[in-house]
């Protein structure tokens, strides 16, 4: 994941979040998103991060961060405690993807998930040429990647149905621009907003 | 690189504050008058906003940083954390170390003379609680002219005091550093404490706590209590790594003398402790630990107990701490989140067990420093002048872990 790509989904996320919302940012990294939301929208909440370097960087960025392993669940957080629960470019690295979505629906009134779209045409082309894709949104070699659960826009739509999530908003972007025509083919970064049905 | 001496608060002198206003204790008794011994480091700023109070753990005291002129080797127990350029930076913060009531390092306690009898309190010293300590510390803050603390920091029993501060005096504390602590002891914790206490009270030299009058010290009991405690403050891995099954001689001696290195180490630590610590204080401190349970009055609901708190919280635990495991700190975090409090939680991967909170773990010091820097920024104290200093060394030059023997619960 390159920093420029990160900013594209951050912009979209920021546009969805109202002032003073309570937000939980899962896999918050160095806390950039929350620090920005706090500055522009007076958002309150916590980042969750497992990596010690990320936790330290978040503290340095003035973000309230809680060091936790998402794989073990979100039992630290009660039902419906947050207006938004965000999982930005972390879904594909989760072992128990379904569980984390259930947990997001439990602790938040709305969830936002962003992930690299495996259905992007360049990715499909790489596969067609006999290789695992390497791109701006998937910048890792197959043997050295944190990404274990790659999916396409359509796959994620199906998963939303399975976990009982109602999709409220669904955008696919490439290079910061929204893709409206054949998004599952032409978009490399998917951004979903959903709530419990 | 600064030397240890340059990076220390230097020579310090304890001070004493006497209080004549009676303190009504949770146990129902009253201390008519009492004294608290304390030390301060750094400079209190003009608006008195930069003070950080350090609460001590079971065997701690007021001597937190620096050394004594007449005893240069007596270095404060948190000297690696507190000093110029250190995580709690005395170039910006005014830091106060205090010895708790019931202690044996100068504050009124069992070894003090009871004015009513002219004899040491001994067994007659009332049981004090975390709440009582916090109340007495607040009076010391009044005396120092500090209305609102920038922070209260403590590890283990000290962390419990920091937590209690946020409940009792929500308006008087900006941030609480709750390190290697728990919202209340587990059954196992209480069990360990009682074994330690039984070792003391069953020592023939204990004389029901009035051993001072007999010119005796229940050193054997105190030593056993410390040996037991010491084991629980270190991780099994660390003990194994440090001592293994090494023996003093070749082969087994087939007797009960000191044979294994770990036996030698523990007995040495126990003896050393028994020479400097008071048995009655050990009983009082472990009881204060047992009694601490702020959620008790809220039917076990910690979030409800913490509802009055207005502080920001820094909570930290250590992966190898089995006496106060990470799960106990997560209970505190969960309650704070439920109460919509500001909280940062770090689960530090350290091999040293409970005592890790006293050691030079680089990541641990970095994250405490980062949080403390935010506190400094919040009250306009400016930023760190140079590199972070851990122990006596600037961070760039830190390699791996240093460390000294810890003090435990």
From TrEMBL, chain A:
Pfam families: MetW. Gene3D superfamilies: Vaccinia Virus protein VP39 (3.40.50.150). CDD domains: AdoMet_MTases. InterPro entries: Methionine_synth_MetW, SAM-dependent_MTases_sf. This is Bifunctional methionine biosynthesis protein MetXA/MetW. The gene is metXA_3.
Automatic annotation (TrEMBL), chain B:
Keywords: Acyltransferase, Amino-acid biosynthesis, Cytoplasm, Methionine biosynthesis, Transferase. Pathway: Amino-acid biosynthesis; L-methionine biosynthesis via de novo pathway; O-succinyl-L-homoserine from L-homoserine: step 1/1. Gene3D superfamilies: 1.10.1740.110, alpha/beta hydrolase. It holds the Pfam family Abhydrolase_1. The keyword tRNA-binding does not apply. One of its GO terms (molecular function) is homoserine O-acetyltransferase activity. It is found in: Cytoplasm. The active site is at 156 (nucleophile), 321, 354. Residues 50-307 form the AB hydrolase-1 domain. The record marks 323 as: Important for acyl-CoA specificity. GO terms for biological process: homoserine metabolic process; methionine biosynthetic process. Its main location: cytoplasm. Substrate binds at residues 226, 355. Its EC number is 2.3.1.46. It catalyses: L-homoserine + succinyl-CoA = O-succinyl-L-homoserine + CoA. GO terms for cellular component: cytoplasm. Transfers a succinyl group from succinyl-CoA to L-homoserine, forming succinyl-L-homoserine. Belongs to the AB hydrolase superfamily. MetX family. Homodimer. This is Homoserine O-succinyltransferase. It comes from Usitatibacter rugosus. The gene is metXS.
């Amino acid at each position: 994941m390159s920093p420029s790509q990160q900013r594209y989904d951050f912009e979209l996320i920021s546009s969805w979040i109202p002032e003073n919302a309570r937000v939980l940012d899962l896999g918050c990294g160095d806390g950039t998103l929350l620090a920005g939301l706090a500055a522009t929208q007076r958002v309150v909440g916590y980042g969750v991060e497992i990596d010690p370097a990320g936790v330290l960087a978040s503290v340095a960025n003035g973000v309230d961060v809680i060091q936790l392993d998402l794989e073990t669940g979100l039992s630290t957080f009660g039902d419906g405690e947050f207006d938004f629960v965000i999982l930005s470019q972390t879904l594909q690295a989760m072992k128990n993807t379904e569980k984390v979505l259930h947990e997001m629906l439990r602790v938040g009134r709305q969830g936002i998930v962003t992930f690299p779209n495996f259905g992007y045409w360049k990715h499909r082309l790489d596969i067609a040429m006999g290789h695992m894709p390497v791109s701006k949104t998937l910048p890792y070699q197959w043997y050295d990647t944190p990404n274990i659960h790659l999916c396409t826009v359509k796959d994620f739509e199906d998963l939303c149905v399975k976990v009982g999530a109602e999709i409220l908003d669904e955008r696919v972007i490439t290079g910061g621009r929204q893709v409206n025509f054949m998004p599952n083919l032409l978009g490399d970064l998917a951004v979903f907003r959903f709530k419990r049905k | 690189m600064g030397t240890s001496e340059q990076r220390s608060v230097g020579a310090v002198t304890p001070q004493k504050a006497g209080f004549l206003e009676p303190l009504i204790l949770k146990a129902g008794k009253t201390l008519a008058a009492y004294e608290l011994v304390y030390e301060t480091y750094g400079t209190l700023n003009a608006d008195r906003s930069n003070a950080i109070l350090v609460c001590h753990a079971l065997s701690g005291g007021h001597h937190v940083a620096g050394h004594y002129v007449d005893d240069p080797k007596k270095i404060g127990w948190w000297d690696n954390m507190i000093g110029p350029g250190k995580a709690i930076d005395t170039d910006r913060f005014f830091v106060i170390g205090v010895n708790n009531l019931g202690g044996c390092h100068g504050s009124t306690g069992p070894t003090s003379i009871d004015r009513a009898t002219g004899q040491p309190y001994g067994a007659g010293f009332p049981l004090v609680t975390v709440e009582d300590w916090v109340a007495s510390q607040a009076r010391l803050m009044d005396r120092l002219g500090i209305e609102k603390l920038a922070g209260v920091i403590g590890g283990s029993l000290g962390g419990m005091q920091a937590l209690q501060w946020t409940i009792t005096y929500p308006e008087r504390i900006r941030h609480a550093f709750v390190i290697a602590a728990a919202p209340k002891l587990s059954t196992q914790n209480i069990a360990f404490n009682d074994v330690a206490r039984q070792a003391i009270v069953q020592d023939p030299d204990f004389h029901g706590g009035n051993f001072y009058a007999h010119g005796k010290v229940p050193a054997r009991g105190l030593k056993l209590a410390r040996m037991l405690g010491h084991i629980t403050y270190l991780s099994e891995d660390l003990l194994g790594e440090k001592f293994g099954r090494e023996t003093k001689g070749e082969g087994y001696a087939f007797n009960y003398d000191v044979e294994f290195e770990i036996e030698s180490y523990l007995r040495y630590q126990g003896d050393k402790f028994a020479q400097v610590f008071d048995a009655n204080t050990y009983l009082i401190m472990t009881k204060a630990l047992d009694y601490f349970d702020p959620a008790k009055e809220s039917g076990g609901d910690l979030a409800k107990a913490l509802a009055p708190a207005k502080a920001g919280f820094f909570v930290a635990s250590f992966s190898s701490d089995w006496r106060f495991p990470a799960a106990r700190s997560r209970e505190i975090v969960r309650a704070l989140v439920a109460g919509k409090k500001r909280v940062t939680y770090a689960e530090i991967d350290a091999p040293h067990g409970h005592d890790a909170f006293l050691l030079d773990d680089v990541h641990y010091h970095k994250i405490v420093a980062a949080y403390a820097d935010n506190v400094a920024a919040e009250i306009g104290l400016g930023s760190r002048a140079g590199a972070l200093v851990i122990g006596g060394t600037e961070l760039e030059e830190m390699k791996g872990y240093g460390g000294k023997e810890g003090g435990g619960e």
